[in-house]
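Changelog-adjacent note: as of this version, every example in the card shows the full chain rather than a window. The one below runs 424 residues end to end.
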Amino acid sequence: MKKLGMMALAALLVVSFTIPAWAMESQFGGYWRTRMWTAQNFTGEDRTEDQDVSAVDTRTRLYYTAVFHENLKFVNKFEFNSYWGDTNGGDIGADGMGYFRIKNSYADFTMGAVNAKVGIQGAALARGFLFDDDFSGMVVSFNGGGVSIPLIWMKPYEGGMGQDANDLDVDYYGISPVINIGENISINPFGLLAFSNDASAWGKTASINGIATDELSLWYAGLNFDAKFDMFSLWATGIYQGGDVDLVNNTSVDFAAWLAAVGFDMDMNWGGVHGQFFYATGEDSTEEDWEKFWVPAGQSYYWAEIMGLGKLGDVSFAQVSRNAPGDQIGNIMAGNFGVTVKPADKLKITLDAWYAALAEDINVNGSDENYLGTEIDLVFTYELVKGLNLDIIGAYLFAGEVTTMDDVDEADPYEIGTRLSLSF
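Full-length structure tokens:
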């Protein structure tokens, strides 16, 4: 895969320099960051130090787009990641591949009112509460009269070759029209279906409650609402999850879950205030239906620094406080209020407070508990030179019983770090 990726990049560069200038326009861009951080007590205690980490990492993203004409583009995005001191590009010599990845490679073409994107690409549904990731597939959009109607096909899992191998395929089918009402309001109803004749081969859908799956038909229906008026903006999202899955023991499970979220921003000369609240149902062991809001793969909504991955979060180090969902929003209710001030042209300071609890209680030493904790996040953002930003980040979680699990050495999680970043 690494050799293939480097060959693909080399081929694209050769093409970009050999095609006559009159035939194609080349567009380059990218993103770079280096983070230094320490995270302590994420297990809610200071005895085992199981998730304690102090690390430095670098991420580079390079974007190349070949624009043949206004109706045809070839889009590519590459990514290199290294932890300082690892053996994959972060050590002496720095000759590793740096976790090379082909993030995107797709054709983007327009035929009248129809636009199509075919290949490896990214998409977001329901602000990430439902989906925000890269995928292999296609998006065909019909545009006109203030309405855009994207039809989406994603291929999360390919069953391979052989008798009945096709039954093991898992497909996502989506629709996400955007309707603009005047200049200030937009409505975005959406739907997503995850389907497989036999979902047992893909690890994300292989079992429910420890029992192997068979036919899966899992669907989501929801609505995004956005309104912006001068300095004030408001948003809301609602999603219902339904469908069912057959199990190999000749039983089935019905899905019945939901998520609701709302937020606001108010911009002022000195900065602004913002806030949000979301609730996603959890699993009630007394009910027969599956009631925890759940997406097999692709969901990603970052929120608080410690409980929700935030700016310094790193899934490679399992860097989420105990029992918090991270960016996989389910069985959670959380609320936030924050203030941003701009004391100087190049300086921005943001202070956020988060309260979070599980939607369904869990047992903690014989008592039903749901409180994850109250988190305080503070971020200083300063433009060192034009285009280069430095974030200084601090976060502290006043841990609840569900985070500490009443450990005899319970301790509050905290995180401190910096992020140097640029985009071009």
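Structural remarks: The mean pLDDT is 92.
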